[in-house]
Amino acid sequence: MKRGMFILVIAMIGCATANYHGRLFHEIKLEFEGCGPELSFSAIQLSLPKGHQKDKVVDEYGFCEYRFTYPDGSIHYISSNIYYGSSLNYENRYKLGIETYSNNRKENEEIINKGEMMDGIFWMECIQMRYVIGYVNSPNAIPSDAIFKDIKLIGE
Predict the structure, then answer these.
(1) Cα separation of 20 and 48, whole Å?
(2) DSSP track, 18-37
(3) Helices marked H in the chain — which ranges?
(4) Across the chain, what does the average pLDDT equal?
(5) How far is residue 42's CA from residue 29's CA, in Å, rounded to a whole number?
(6) What is the rounded distance in angstroms from the CA atom of residue 140 to the CA atom of residue 147?
(7) How many helices (H) and strands (E) does the chain have?
């Protein structure tokens, strides 16, 4: 009986670590080959919540963005455009007085902009050194490290 209880506890801990607001995570590889003039990687491997529809958008400058739309209307994204971020959050950034991000950032510097779009609907954009992650239309304010997990750049 004790062994069965131990296994049950271990299984519950595993589910808790793979779960965020009731969403289970799964691993995915996203291709970024040719997605920006100064891109230093060819793909990104990460874990993200299940239950999404995936779309890839390429802007007029050749930057790529993957968008993951969830049934609650929230959209999570990862982009190679480290200068302008996502067009999904343009109006939200503009309200804060931010139009572009400087390319004079320090190595490993992280810039986080976030806010409430309207009552109970949140947005966030996190600029990493080589990519941008964020979300819009979320009923929850999600920490930047919980949007995607285990982000690994491939082909550096």
Answers:
(1) 10
(2) TEETTEEEEEEEEE-TT-ST
(3) 2-17, 90-95, 144-147
(4) 83
(5) 10
(6) 11
(7) 3, 10
Residues with Cβ within 8 Å of 43's Cβ and at least 6 positions away in sequence, in order, are 29, 30, 31, 32, 33, 153, 154, 155
For residue 149, count CB atoms less than 10 angstroms from its CB and return exposed for 0-12, middle for 13-18, buried for 19 or more. Answer: middle
Q: Output helix, strand, coil percentages for the chain, rounded to the nearest 5.
A: 20, 40, 40
CA gap 144, 156 in Å, rounded: 23
Burial 105-132 (b: 16+ CB within 10 A, else e): eeeeeebebbeeeeeeebbbbbbbebbb
pLDDT in tens, 71-94: 999 999 999 998 888 999 999 988
What is the token pair recorded at 61? 């400058």
